[in-house]
Amino acid sequence: MIAAALGEVRDEIVIASKAGYTYVEETREAPGENGDPEYIRWACEESLRRLNTDRIDLYQFHLGGYDVAKADDVLAVFEELVAAGKVRAIGWSTDDPERAAVFARSPHCKAIQQHFNVFGGNADVLALCEERGLASIVRGPLGMGLLTGKFAADSTLPADDVRHGWDFRTGDQAESLRRLDAIRDVLTSDGRTLAQGALGWLWGRSESFVPIPGFKTVAQVEENAGALRHGPLAPAQLKQIVDILQ
To answer: Where is each NADP-dependent oxidoreductase domain found (predicted)?
Structure first.
């Protein structure tokens, strides 16, 4: 579907993908992990085939907790894919600064993907990205929906939702809702929605951040993109949020 959508605008698009989890195309499931060089080569070829393209602009290692002792072998195969012209740039999706540093020493590493949002993240990984001039791609910038304001104490989720175990009354999510309510006015300042404020917080926190918010509807895509019109939160607003959450 993505290949069809790219059509004649492929050269205007940056494709970022990952490798490391196994994938069964018939069932569209990812049942396991594999960081072996042979598997990564195969996964890259399969992605190129499905996307109907000759290169992946940013290829990232997906296994955030992979054995550091084997990381050099993983880096070598990613470098091999760059040399072959199949990948233009590489990165690692990890919240661990030691692992991120392995890829960061490569001149072809352009990004580290990490979990970060207004409620927290690994500042050391961010510092590494800022020091090396890398993009810090942010997964979970909206807290898997928590920062959009769509949940309340009585919210429930269907069994087929990965968040179905969330407890908005007494669990960690209840505390997150309380904290969100405390900073709501700051995040929604200047006409922003909560989601736009959460994205603006990231841009205000670091110029390295490139958030990748999730979406299920066209309206959510438009809302996320609308955050660009507002830009980053101001330093005073960032400080206000820190003071409130502390």
So the answer is: 2-244
